[in-house]
Write a structure and sequence with these properties.
The complex is a heterodimer. By secondary structure, chain A is mainly alpha-helical. Chain A is built from twelve helices and two strands, in the order H-H-H-H-H-E-E-H-H-H-H-H-H-H. A two-stranded antiparallel ribbon of chain A has the order 1-2. In chain A, helix 2 (9-37) crosses helix 10 (222-237) and helix 4 (66-93) crosses helix 5. Chain A is globular, with a radius of gyration of 19 Å. Chain B has 14 helices and 15 strands. Chain B has helices spanning 2-5, 12-28, 55-74, 97-109, 121-132, 163-180, 196-210, 230-239, 250-262, 280-285, 287-290, 305-316, 323-342, 347-355; strands spanning 34-35, 42-48, 86-92, 114-117, 138-140, 156-158, 187-193, 215-222, 243-247, 269-273, 294-297, 371-372, 375-376, 382-387, 390-395. By secondary structure, chain B is of the alpha/beta class. Chain B has a seven-stranded mixed beta sheet with strand order 8-7-9-10-11-14-15, sandwiched between helices. A six-stranded mixed beta sheet of chain B has the order 1-3-2-4-5-6, with helices on both faces. Chain B starts with a helix and ends in a 14-residue tail after the last strand. Classes of the chains: A mainly alpha, B alpha/beta. At the A-B interface, helix 1, helix 2, helix 5, helix 6 and helix 7 of A face helix 1, helix 2, helix 3, strand 8 and helix 8 of B.
């Protein structure tokens, strides 16, 4: 048993990397929204589910490949996120954090139940013409959908990092995150920045949804499957850190995969919880987080 | 790198508080039974996981139960009670045993006369135990744990098979199929989900297979949900079993099947026991993956006119004819027959009537109903196989509509 597991270790690590990148993308939206708005988006899972359904229906109705659909779903998700925040969450909350929490929680319940009503609880999967084509690494067949998802996730993480560090918008977002009153005094439209940040967070989910569809399934509760992991990644990587989310995604992905190999696929999940506990004890701010 | 580290400064404590609040609210449960009242009606509580990961099978179960109630009412209701109409009281277990038990309490307050449920064995165990406190007749429509009917509760009944008899039948059928092909298969690997359903069934099948000369060389348990089956596929590839035997719920069943193909795992047959994802939808949508996969499950009798009619009605409603539909239908027929023969809603009388049921269910490949400690001994699971875009019964021979393709082509 152990020798078999060890012989599969390289494959397990690569699998962990592949999924870790997608986990990171889901966590990116969460960490970005938290970092700037200082709130947790409880509707994160529900919005991921919406992105998955968007990609699903684009494929089923218009026959648009989910990876091509990234170009549609990502900007659409940004607009959805912007509008929801600017004219929904932002207005209704009256600027109070606890109101925002309740509104996003309510939103998640509405979205999930609306999906259950309109799309039913039936799990939907798709098969692409290249779903079963793969790259032969000798010890592992790396399926093209997973490989594409991995590369696309890295590219999106890189683009987001560049946006945050190299552009005026990124500077404005960082300024609002650090000192929102100061940012307002120097002329930054804080409400607009909040909405843009929320939109970017949801756009990350849009991209993640398109990448998950070919390798997973969608039902009204699928988002929650990944959001629990995303919470762990955000705590591990450091709340608000983009690099932390990426690194956290890889660590969690590999832990899950290797844990499954060594401890069994059921017990192996314990590794994720263990990391969560250890990081809270020894580095509560996360790997790249800073103290409040 | 440094910049990103310093980008934001949020409070971890606030984040954690919020996360805890989410989990607490999710755990508390937010639904209540939906009750439609009518004087003199026989109320049957339907408890299923209407929200949560099992929402689809729950919807199918509700659909089947409500179709049966509509049919019975259209045929004059419970005649021995002056044509009393049947009425559904809907409950949502949210996939949680404690919520399932709480739904029973609410239904008891609402005055239900019988309860049907619950899809998951763990929920069925909790809910039926709660119903036993009030002696409410409880019919298990889907729920395979034999513990459901082995606790000495005189109010709990199950028309379909439990995992003990299904495991035995699955092993006999596999042995026969293998023998007919010249006994090419010697080894089996079981991949099962981690709850009572998967774990219990896997243990029983392992024991049963040994008595037929088939060795289980690998048993892999996985979580619900499992996001990635690559490692499991690689482990199976390394173990090289002749037969792969999945015992899991729909999402994981399909993901595993896809991953086995992606990783090009070679085997003679996928022979699932109570494979949650094996149904007409799977065969329709993924014909290449499904082709020649075998499942042992509750299945209707395709040669019966009533079975064909029920399938046509279900499909005309835009739904797939999954086992949940006819199992729920059958369970309502069983309860209605109990009320009919009891001539009242008196719980003692109805439980006694159900315990002595001899109901014939012509749309299932069953003999006459014979309850022994709440379990129908006339029920029988069959082996079915995806063949050329359709599903055929391949064993037992008296119900077979086609020969098995084994090893798979």
């Amino acid at each position: 048993m152990l020798s078999t597991s060890l012989s599969l270790l390289p494959a397990g690590i690569i699998n962990g990397f592949m999924f870790g990148a997608i986990y990171a993308l889901v966590a990116l939206g969460l960490t970005l929204i938290y970092g700037v708005l200082h709130i947790i988006n409880f509707a994160h899972g529900a919005m991921l589910m919406l992105a998955l359904y968007s990609a699903y229906f684009l494929f089923k109705i218009l026959n648009i490949d989910p990876y091509v659909a990234i170009l549609i779903v990502t900007p659409a998700s940004f607009i959805f996120g912007y509008v929801i925040y600017r004219w929904g969450i932002g207005k209704l909350s009256g600027g109070k954090d606890q109101n925002i929490l309740l509104i996003t929680l309510g939103l998640s319940i509405i979205l999930e139940n609306a999906a259950l009503f309109f799309f039913t609880g039936d799990q939907q999967t798709i098969s692409l013409s290249y779903s079963y084509d793969s790259l032969d690494l000798g010890f592992l067949y790396l399926s093209y959908p997973k490989l594409i998802s991995f590369i696309a996730s890295l590219v999106i993480c890189g683009l987001l990092w560049m946006l945050m560090t190299l552009t005026d918008l990124g500077k404005a977002i960082r300024a609002v995150a650090k000192q929102r009153e100061g940012a307002r005094l120097v002329g930054i439209d804080v409400e607009h920045v909040f909405a843009v940040t929320f939109g970017i967070g949801i756009a990350c989910l849009g991209a993640a949804g398109c990448m998950l569809l070919p390798i997973f399934y969608v039902d009204p509760y699928t988002g929650n499957v990944f959001v629990i992991i995303a919470f762990t990644i955000v705590v591990l990587g450091g709340m608000g850190s983009i690099v932390g989310a990426l690194l956290g995604g890889f660590i969690i992905g590999i832990t899950e995969s290797v844990g499954g190999l060594l401890l069994g696929e059921s017990l192996g999940q314990i590794g994720i919880s263990l990391i969560f506990i250890l990081i809270l004890i020894f580095r509560p701010t996360g790997i790249f987080g800073s103290k409040a | 790198m440094t910049k990103s580290k310093e980008l934001f400064t949020g409070s971890r404590r606030k984040f954690m508080k919020g996360a805890s609040a989410t989990f607490a609210l999710a755990a508390a449960g937010l639904s209540a039974p939906q009750i439609a009242r009518a004087a003199g009606a026989v109320k049957i509580g339907l408890i299923h996981p209407a929200t949560g990961w099992a929402a689809y099978p729950a919807a199918q179960l509700r659909y089947g139960a409500q179709m049966a109630i509509a049919d019975l009412n259209a045929a004059g209701g419970i005649k021995s009670m002056g044509g009393a109409a049947l009425e559904a009281v809907l409950g949502d277990s949210q996939t949680k045993p404690e919520i399932g038990a709480a739904e029973v309490e609410k239904m008891n307050e609402a005055g239900v006369h019988a309860i049907q449920g619950c899809y998951q064995s763990a929920v069925g165990l909790a809910a039926s135990a709660a119903a036993a406190k009030y002696n409410i007749p409880f019919s298990v429509d889907v729920g395979v744990s034999d513990k459901l009917v082995q606790r000495g509760l005189s109010n709990v009944f199950r028309m379909a098979d439990g995992y003990g008899r299904i495991a035995a039948d699955a092993s006999v059928n596999l042995a026969e199929i293998n023998k007919a092909a010249g006994s090419p298969a010697k080894t089996v690997a079981i991949v099962h989900e981690e709850s009572e359903f998967g774990t219990g069934t896997a243990k029983l099948v392992t024991k049963a297979l040994a008595s037929h000369g088939l060795e289980v060389i690998e048993t892999i348990k996985h979580a619900n949900p499992t996001r990635n089956f690559d490692n499991i596929a690689l482990r199976l590839k390394s173990a090289k079993p002749d037969i792969i035997m999945p015992i899991n719920y729909p999402g994981e069943y399909i993901l595993l099947a896809k991953t086995l193909r992606q990783q090009r795992v070679d085997f003679m047959a996928s022979y699932s026991v109570l494979g949650g994802g094996f149904n007409f939808k799977f065969v329709d949508e993924m014909p290449q993956i499904a082709e020649n996969m075998i499942d042992v499950n509750h299945w209707y009798d395709p040669s019966s006119a009533s079975g064909q009619q029920m399938r046509a009605r279900t499909e005309a409603d835009g739904k797939y004819f999954t086992f949940e539909v006819y199992c729920a239908y059958m369970s309502i027929m069983f309860l209605a027959d109990g009320f009919e023969r009891a001539g009242s809603t008196d719980k003692e009388a109805v439980n006694a009537a159900l315990a002595s049921s001899t109901l014939d269910i012509d749309f299932m490949p069953y003999g006459s109903t014979k309850m022994v400690d709440g379990q129908n001994m006339g029920s029988r699971a069959v082996a079915i196989q995806a063949q050329k875009g359709d599903v055929q019964i391949i064993a037992p021979s008296e119900y077979a509509s086609a020969s098995a393709v084994f090893p798979r082509s």
